[in-house]
Please model this.
Amino acid sequence: MLMLALACVALALWASQRQTLTQGPWGLAVLPGGQVWLSVDEELWRLDADGQRQQVVRAADVGLPGAAGELMPHPAGHLAAWSRRSPTLHLLDAASAQPLALLTPQWPPDLARHGDTAISYAFAPDGRVAIAAGGGHTVALFDAQGRYLARSPPNTFYFTNGLWWADGGWWCTDTNRFALVRLNDADLTEIRRIALDTPQSERRLRFGRGQLLRRWFASIDPRRSWRFLSLAAASRGAARGGQAPLGTVARLANDMEQGHVVDVWPDGQQRAYPVPDGQNALQPRALAWLGDTLLVVDGQGFAIRRYDAGGQRLPDWGDAAVQTDQARRHAALQSWRGLYRLGLTGAVLLLLSGLGASVWERRLKQAPAGMEDKPRRALASSARAGWQTLASLLIPGLGQWIQGRFGVGLVYFVFWLMLMSQFVFAVWVAWASIMGVTPLTLWITGVMAFVPGLVAAVDAWRLRERTPNKPGTDYAGKIPE
Model:
């Protein structure tokens, strides 16, 4: 059973790796003339304005160190691409994606660690680039060669995940304080702030009812938790009351994955774009305006959602070949997820079955009834028994090793090591932003990683009165006849 359990864990690890590699569509950029570039897994696709795929280029063939996490138009007409965990922007030819130049921002020392995890980029017409540093709580400005120019003053942002250039200045999202902030073009000082209301139901729940109750209501209606600001771009949506919207912004839940897209007016009013039928939310990865049509990359369905300027949902963007390819990738991702769960479930069931069989075998070998007057010798004190249990809880198998049960201890340890590796891998993927990892995934892998410790601790405690093998005795401490 041990070998089968290890095989199941190996299957789960392999399936998890395949999940990581199957990201689907992510970055999106609309270039002058209607050219659209889309990053899909380790590829870059060039499409025309009607969604027909014209060219497919491997990211590695154009110098990208990995899948493109963000694409954006450069003012010189090029395509700018950024790969996760890389501090460098790659400038590519708009027609062929062949490499033209590299732009490596020269971050100030205290922000250097955010250079390869920055969330969003935007260019000014003269080639300067502003970068939203996300967890750095700042926006930094660099010239066309990457030299550092300025940064936003302290406490301007509490996380910032989206920005765009318009009308001689920068608009940025104050992500966790639910506001759009206008920054001066040269020194990035704050000029204006537009507070965005949270949903009315969320305001009612915010005070006096507790976090657990708020989460329960949010689980019933996820729109109640779509508060945090993420992707942002200048809007081309239809005017309302004679006034055009200022920007198009993604509003997300606390996991920063699920949410919806809204147009924002200068007075803070918003117009939401509908989510697709059968979905509770979008998973916006990128958004861009193609003329008067809004395109949104939806990671939940591996599709490019399309809306008109008035906010009405249109059929998904992309021709039949593009949509079929995306559907195939999404089906493959679901298969890898199912295989991952199957592997973990099988490993746990096999471990529990093995433990049950071991307990049953020990009971069959116990001394017959009527020997209560011959108490077994207990060499371990209560403190020693507690140490064995604690040792197995912290490092599964250690308590069994102390008890002299080396084979059982090795089983616990190897199984724990496999599950803990899976948890560490999930945490690393989330931290490195290689792909979206939901809190549920982290919770599941974390709980599974601690299951062997709990089982091993219970097993060690149950055998606290047993003695390890000693010369002249068997496992139970009895002198053999």
